[in-house]
Design brief:
The structure is a single chain. It is built from 3 helices and 9 strands, in the order αβββββαββββα. It is α+β, with helices and mostly antiparallel strands and 201 residues long. It has one domain: Protein Transport Mog1p, Chain A, CATH 3.40.1000. The strands form 2 sheets. The chain has a 7-stranded antiparallel sheet with strand order 3-4-5-9-8-7-6, with helices on one face. The N terminus is likely disordered.
Amino acid sequence: MTTWTCKPLAALSLLCVLSACDDVTGGDGLLTSLTPPEDDALPAVPLTQALMMRGSMTLVPPNGYCIDPESLTQSFALMARCDALGSSNDSGNAPVGVMTVSLARNALSPALPSAQELAAASSLGTPTDARQSEQSVVFQTTGTPPSSDFSPTHWRSVSKVGRITMGAALFGPTGQRAVSAAGADLLEEMISRTTAQTSAG
């Protein structure tokens, strides 16, 4: 599995959240440590939601996507189409892609930076097609993809869910819908569903 890395950010305290970066090597996540030894041989079942940050937030994928349970920690998750993860859940017409999510707890819940500030802090290409609100910023940019199967052009988002800052990245194959405007819609759907479920608590 690919490992994302990130650089320290002096100007912004969002750190790896901006890049949705974390060690994604499977096997040492939260769920693995909770699995009884006799269940080790059983396949991990993709999830349609997950409690994160010690129960402070409920992460909900966009429609057609599931969470890879082997990727989970308290502050990181990887998502893909449910069928790509071996789930029988209907993936519908969801774009083919891989989404990563990283979380950080903020004491003061500061205002979100602009797309330009986020891209500069993470050494990404000039952002385009930015969608910014008080609660989230979604933008397209360029950067090194996690795999040669994916386009350097991809979508990023940073959003506030209560006092938690959630950074996400969505990568997809070159020329496919995940790197079109549909990718931004997918991130916005994940943010909306996660916020609603967390608030419903």
